Amino acid sequence: MDDGISSFWGPVTSTIECCEKNYVYSSYIAEFFNTISNVPGIILALIGLLNALRQHLRRGLVFFTYQTWHWQLVICCIMLHCNAHQHSDETPMVWEMLLYLYILYSPDWHYKSTMPTFIFLYGAAFGVPSSSNWF
User: Where are the domains of the chain?
Assistant: First the structure.
């Protein structure tokens, strides 16, 4: 923290400042407006969860899972902007993208095991090093 501002979360490990200066408005929130702007994402994900629960369609569980992952992604984005620690939202973004690809293309797959296996292996290959902070 170059400006000498103390943080509740400890030293900043992020190598970038996303859009605004860190810890200007509060010692608890690094990027105040980026953190607050994620609140509509939580509300929309909760509305999507409720709609998925209300629908008893064949794909209701898939959309419920997607909305749950989206809600988790928004929470991770809030964590990133709140404490300015690197790697808190990158892995959930990749996993949500893979889940979205699964939802979009699963009805058209000719080989039912190939694409889910690829998606799982890609997600694991990205998630393990990311959680270990290898890159």
Answer: 32-131
